[in-house]
């Protein structure tokens, strides 16, 4: 090789290097300008105290705790209803669900077109789609069974899970092919899982199965903006756990609590896999992860709401204040507690601002962008006032500042949550003026709402005859404990 040839080769190498650098700069720019991903990890009927970050002593949740410890813990985080269906409708639309008549859990009857989020409302997937997002839901839908109301017709590009409000956890119990095979109430817990609109067979403990699919979705979609809604049905009844997780809690004597702890532990492992996948895919810094439960701990699943009064289905704090945390490296400060009230309604309001999505033609949201508050750009509370209405029980509640009004039928109660975390001291007689102004605000809000848009959950299919009840998933045996040596491969 003569010197001219050598110079030419060096020149070619220089050009190649320059091109590689240029590509790297372009990639880096693309990533930094890419809209943030959103992952909502929702658990079901998990108690306020049943995470390490809220002081659980018997259940270990190291991966869920990372979301709070590497992000912000919301000590006053609320959902908009104390039961699954309406709470999820509020979360997904960012609007109080009573505005569109989602006042109770919907019937499972697939012939009723009104039994979910009406098509006049937009959920997060539908709002983000025009901005270039791909959306997936893994797990529990519960927002309607009519073919036009299912996830793939409601903005979700991918669905892996089930339509019902709860489900059996072991694959061999998924014996019904479809809702057409349901003869009795709660047999919908036995339907095979859906992948988009196709029924599929599974071989894992359900929580592990859902975690795997969440990880697979992230790996598939990591090169463009996505919204992933991981809606675990754990730790909702039936109480069923595999030996892998039960083995961690042999020291808990109460069998229900032990099984519940194992179910939460399975979710925690799943959260660990999800967070690890974000890191592996190089999208950790650009992904907002929000963790919360859809309502407070239930009476029937051995959950623990700590000092909070009441449970699922109550408008006391135990029904609507939930474990709630958000993590977004480089954007949300790590290890910070936020004590002002926030709501599940805020998640949609936050992502549309952060992703610069135009919602000017959409219906007004009830939530608030939380980022300026979390980052201390704004002081004060994201909400002057929050409302809850429970039509079926003639029950309502209002929170303003640290004041809380709870009215059951005709009996108003007032509490100062700053001094009375457990709502044990009714100070209504001393707070007549404040109560009056909160009632007035409630009536104004209520005047904007609709009545029930669809029949109640239990109105479809009859109860199983008692003689057939013992080995089936009817309401009576929902708390039956089942364990099995499964799900050991994750
Ligand atoms: Ca629930």
Structural summary, described in words:
The chain is α/β, with parallel strands linked by helices. It folds into two domains: 362 residues, 3-Layer(aba) Sandwich (Alkaline Phosphatase, subunit A); 55 residues, Arylsulfatase, C-terminal domain. It has eleven helices and 18 strands. The strands form four sheets. It has a ten-stranded mixed sheet. A four-stranded antiparallel sheet has the order 14-15-16-17, covered by helices on one side. A hairpin with a 4-residue loop joins β14 and β15. The longest helix is centred in the N-terminal third of the chain and has 31 residues. About 6% of the residues have low confidence. The structure holds calcium ion.
Layout of secondary structure:
Elements: H1 3-33, E1 37-43, H2 62-69, E2 72-74, E3 77-78, H3 84-93, H4 124-128, E4 134-140, E5 158-162, E6 193-195, E7 198-200, H5 206-221, E8 226-231, E9 240-242, H6 243-246, H7 255-280, E10 287-293, H8 317-320, E11 324-327, E12 336-338, E13 342-343, H9 346-354, H10 371-374, E14 386-390, E15 395-400, E16 403-408, E17 411-416, H11 432-446, E18 482-484
Parallel strand pairs: 1-8, 1-10, 2-12, 3-13, 4-5, 4-8, 9-18
Antiparallel strand pairs: 2-11, 5-6, 6-7, 10-11, 14-15, 15-16, 16-17
Helix pairs in contact: 5-7
Bound molecules: calcium ion (CA).
Residues 44-45, 84, 236, 294-295 line the site of calcium ion.
């Amino acid at each position: 090789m003569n010197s001219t040839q050598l110079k030419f080769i060096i020149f070619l190498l220089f050009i190649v290097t320059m091109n590689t650098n240029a590509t790297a700069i372009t990639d880096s720019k693309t990533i930094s300008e890419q809209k943030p991903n959103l992952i909502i990890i929702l658990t079901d009927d998990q108690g306020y105290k049943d995470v390490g970050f809220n002081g659980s002593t018997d259940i270990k949740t190291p991966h869920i705790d990372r979301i709070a410890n590497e992000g912000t813990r919301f000590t006053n985080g609320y959902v908009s209803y104390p039961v699954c269906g309406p709470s999820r409708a509020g979360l997904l639309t960012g609007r109080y669900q009573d505005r569109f008549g989602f006042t109770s859990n919907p019937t499972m009857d697939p012939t009723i077109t009104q039994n979910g989020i009406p098509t006049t409302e937009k959920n997060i997937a539908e709002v983000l789609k025009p901005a270039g997002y791909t959306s997936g839901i893994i797990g529990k839908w519960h927002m309607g069974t009519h073919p036009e109301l299912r996830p793939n017709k409601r903005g979700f590009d991918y669905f892996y899970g089930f339509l019902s409000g709860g489900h059996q956890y072991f694959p061999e119990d998924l014996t019904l092919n479809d809702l057409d095979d349901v003869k009795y109430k709660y047999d919908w817990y036995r339907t095979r899982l859906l992948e988009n609109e196709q029924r599929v067979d599974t071989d894992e403990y359900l929580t592990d199965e859902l975690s795997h699919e969440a990880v697979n979705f992230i790996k598939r979609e990591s090169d463009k903006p996505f919204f992933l809604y991981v809606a675990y049905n754990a730790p909702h009844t039936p109480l069923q756990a595999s030996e892998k997780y039960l083995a961690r809690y042999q020291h808990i004597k109460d069998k229900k609590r032990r099984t519940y702890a194992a179910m939460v532990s399975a979710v925690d492992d799943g959260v660990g896999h999800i967070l690890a996948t974000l890191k592996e895919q190089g999208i950790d810094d650009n992904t907002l992860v929000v963790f919360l439960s859809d309502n407070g701990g239930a009476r029937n699943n051995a959950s623990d709401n700590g000092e909070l009064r009441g449970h699922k289905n109550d408008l006391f704090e135990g029904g609507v204040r939930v474990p709630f945390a958000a993590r977004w490296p480089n954007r949300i400060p790590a290890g910070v507690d936020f004590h002002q009230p926030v709501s599940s309604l805020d998640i949609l309001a936050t992502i549309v601002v952060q992703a610069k999505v135009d919602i000017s033609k959409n219906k007004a949201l009830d939530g608030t962008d939380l980022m300026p508050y979390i980052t201390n750009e704004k002081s004060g509370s994201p909400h002057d006032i929050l409302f809850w209405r429970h039509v079926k029980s003639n029950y309502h509640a209002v929170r303003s500042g640290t004041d809380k009004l709870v009215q059951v039928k005709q009996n108003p109660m007032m509490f100062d949550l700053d001094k009375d975390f457990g709502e044990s001291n009714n100070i209504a007689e001393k707070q007549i003026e404040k109560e009056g102004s909160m009632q007035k605000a409630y009536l104004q809000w209520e005047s904007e709402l609709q009545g029930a848009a669809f029949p109640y959950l239990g109105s479809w299919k009859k109860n199983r005859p008692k003689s057939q009840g013992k080995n089936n998933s009817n309401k009576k045996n929902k708390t039956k404990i089942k364990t099995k040596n499964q799900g050991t491969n994750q």
